[in-house]
Amino acid sequence: MFLNPATRLRVASFKYVSHVSDPRSTLSRTPRKTGSPAPENVPSLLGAETGEGASSYPSIRVGVVRLTQKGVVMYVGKMRAANLLRLWEIDKFRDEDLEGYQRRLYDDRTQQVLDYLTQCPIAVMPGILVSLREGANFKPISEGLNVGALEIPNYQGSIWVIDGQHRLGGLQLGLKGVEDELSGMETVDSETRKMLEDYEVPVVFIDSASACESIKPSLRDPSVSIAPSDVERVVFFIVNKTAKSISPSLKDALAYKIKAAGIEGIPIIEKEPWRVPATRISLALFRDGRTGSPFTGLMKITGIETRVTRGVGRPLTLSSFVTSLRPLIENERFKNISSDPKLAYEQQLAFVATYWRALRRLHEDPFKEPQNYMILKSIGVYALNLIANDVFNWCSSAGSEPTENNIMKFIKPLKDFDWSKKTSPLAAFGGQKGVRAAYKLLLRNIAEKGVAEASGRLTELEEEETT
């Protein structure tokens, strides 16, 4: 599409205009439209004070592009966070009359969003999806064009959030100006506050009022009354029902790569810092043949295996093995194996590879036909990596290097243990309680064969359970 010079000038100069001056004022001073009460909203919505002359400009103008999807008119634009937060509302689901559709706002998720925005150098958020229940007042920059200004009434509830309430909640958490009761200090400094106020949020607006009319002819009974909230409910259901999260294993792999790139400040990664070194070790066991790992080719990362049939192939998921390593990774002796980070990683990887290589010496068949044995099932991996943590401590206490032969002194009694999928006692265990029961069963098996360290560990576990 070619525009004449005058039109190009209007497009270039077209911008979002706000006639509201102070985004920190109280909600009670926010202009409100008269009418029936709005449904219950997010607590402590950010209010705003109307600036001088604002009464002459009752709307906020947003630069948008208009589009249509199967008869439903939509607009795509951006809004400054401080202005968007004055207008949003959610239609919270109510048990008593089944009205509304939104879930509750979870504090931990909004805090994670705020932490991400303030701590991560790549604080990029996807767009939010909102509804205009009163319809859209769109003014194209030139007749026939789909580029123009969307005029939105300046009052709380002129925008109803369908998808993105926790993203807005995170922004709100940083901007609402909550003060510490003891110090009287705001939760964010002035520079951070300014950044949050000016943060540009991509917004997709649905003209839900016109959508009600456009979809009526396609209904089985066109006489049925359709409200904008019905349109919102459908979109909310589809967005949340059909969205598929990435697999836990892929999350671990991506988190490791993000940390390896030196990027900090992502709450979901910072919440469990032990997963990153555990993932690094696990990936090396799967991918790097130099370690002599018995896991080469046996671990799923993406969770998708098209080359192998169900029940065979790669029995281990990266996520399961990573989680099973937690006691070892958080073991202070293991963490401080060397003051040199590079050497520490190499020694940690060497221990885990050597330990599992020793297990393979005792039981080769489970690594050739893993689908028929319990060793590489989750219950087996979790229990055996708990034993690995003990073995490392036993070697350290004895002042001996965790070589394959020294490790074998402790785990050789497991040679006679029944790992068969059909007959193993581990087949009856499940869940975290099952993991602990399996771990104690293996310890008892080792202790009964004369390993004093295993007997001592069993005594410690029994004392922990009685306190």
Report on the architecture of this protein.
The relative contact order is 0.08. The strands form 3 sheets. The protein has an 8-stranded mixed β-sheet, with helices on both faces. A hairpin with a 2-residue loop joins β3 and β4. The protein has 2 domains: 238 residues, no CATH class; 219 residues, no CATH class. It is of the alpha/beta class. α6 crosses α7. The chain has 19 helices and 12 strands.
List the helices and strands and how they pair.
Elements: H1 5-13, E1 20-22, E2 49-50, E3 59-69, E4 72-80, H2 81-87, E5 88-89, H3 107-119, E6 128-131, E7 137-140, E8 147-153, E9 159-163, H4 165-175, H5 190-198, E10 200-206, H6 208-215, H7 228-242, H8 248-260, H9 267-270, H10 275-287, E11 299-300, E12 316-317, H11 318-324, H12 326-329, H13 332-335, H14 341-362, H15 365-368, H16 378-398, H17 404-411, H18 431-448, H19 452-466
Parallel strand pairs: 5-9, 6-10, 11-12
Antiparallel strand pairs: 1-2, 3-4, 3-8, 4-10, 6-9, 7-8
